[in-house]
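Something for you to look into today, if you have time. Could you write out one complete protein record for me, on any chain you like? The space below this message is yours for that.
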Amino acid sequence: MELDELINAYRGPLIGLIAAWGAPWHEATEIAQDSFADAWLNRESCRGDWNDPEVFGRWLRGVALNRYRNWSRGRRRWFRLFTFAAEPMDPVDTSTLQEVPEHLAQLREAVDRLPQMQRQVILMHYLEDTSVKEVATLLSVPVKTVEGRLYQARRALHRMITDQTDSKTTETLP
């Protein structure tokens, strides 16, 4: 496979996976790009058939995990260096900011509370529009496992959002 084919096939799932590990979306995109570059430059070190999606997906996930760990370590060091030296920030003019619709805010909060395995498949499948088979390949798990995690995650999200809505309704009742 050529580099552009690999990027087209794995870009979305990889960004979703890295975001599920805890990187902000824009950082996850950068880490994914760096992972593709590393993978392409070091493709001789891939054990197995480079063109086999099972082999390549597993190997790319390992490259991305190493990139994510390096990013995370660097971020912690940067935070320690500049946390105490930072000057107070100017107040932000909130009048120009657009509010996030309440239902989206509830959904984001609920997704953040999901267990990591469920959060991974939700972000990869729905946010990056990745097929269940591609998610399974990248995570090195059977397709049925991904389907089960998606089912459990959807049920958990439904429960969390319904509970929040019900509690807000009862708060407003006299």
About this structure: The chain has two domains: 1-84, 100-174. The first helix runs from residue 3 to 21.
